[in-house]
Write the C-alpha cells for this entry.
Amino acid sequence: MSDVRAILVALACREGGERLRQMLSGTEWTLCFAPNFSDVEAALRASSFGAVICEGHFTDGHCWKDVLIEIQRRPIPPQLIVADRLADEALWAEVLDLGCYDLLITPFAAGEVLRVVPMAWDFWKRELERATASPKRPMPAEAGRQSFKRGRAVGAD
C-alpha cells in the first residue's frame, strides 16, 4: 500500500483548484485535476484516489451525482466531498444521504479543507486496510452445529 495521499480534484474553476493546491501543499498530498466529467472518468480508471473533491455541477451537464455513481463502481471507492457555493442544509442532507463524505462551501475555507480532506482520506485508508486484511477462515459447518446444540435453552428441542 502506498503512503501517497492522492486526491482527485474535479473542478472546472482554475482558481478553486489553485486555492486547494495552496491549502494542501506539502509532500504528503498529491492532487490530480480533472476539469470535466470525462476527465474524472479517465482519472478514476487510471489511478487510485483516497478522496475526490467535486464541484456541484460541471459545464458539460454532469454533476456530483454522476461522479458518485462512477466512484461507487470501484472496489474500494474513494470518499466523495462535494464542493458548492450554494451549499445549504438541503444539499448537505442529500449529499450525506447518498453516501458522500461531506460538503464544502466554495470559495474554500482553509480550516474546513484541512479538517475534512485528511479525515476523508483516512476513512478511505481504513476501508482499504480492512478490505485487504486476510479474511478470517469460516467456521466449519459441523463445528457450528455442535456449538448451537450446546447453546440451547433447557427444555428446547
